[in-house]
Amino acid sequence: MGKKVLVVDDEEVIRKFLRIHLDKWGYEVKEAGDGAEALEQLGNEDFDFILLDIIMPKKDGWQVLEEIRSNSKTKDIPVIILTAKNEDSDMFRGYDLGANYFITKPFTKAQLFYGIQLIFGEDSDSINQINISH
Fold this sequence. Notes:
Layout: E1 4-8, H1 12-24, E2 28-32, H2 35-44, E3 49-52, H3 61-70, E4 79-83, H4 88-96, E5 101-104, H5 109-119
Parallel strand pairs: 1-2, 1-3, 3-4, 4-5
């Protein structure tokens, strides 16, 4: 199995979309439906990166990101924000809180794949080596 990712989003359809494509690309996928569940999973398992929504019940993505970055066990895990919040101020806040990349919804598979490649410093030309059209 490849890298292990935690997908955090309260919308099941988004989690399913992400799971399908991440599975195809060789990632091991775990899911959380809200911020509190995400933090619980982060306390119990190790992840290589996190895809994090902002607008969620219990704990929003901002709170989750702050807790991730303040915890010595999770502070270095790369975080990609996937959100419908599309104002510049949201993007700046995400980066200020320690996000590694910021993608607004709706997004394409290519944007997602590129973001993942970017956070791991992998050659962006490898996007041509993987079938993202299906």
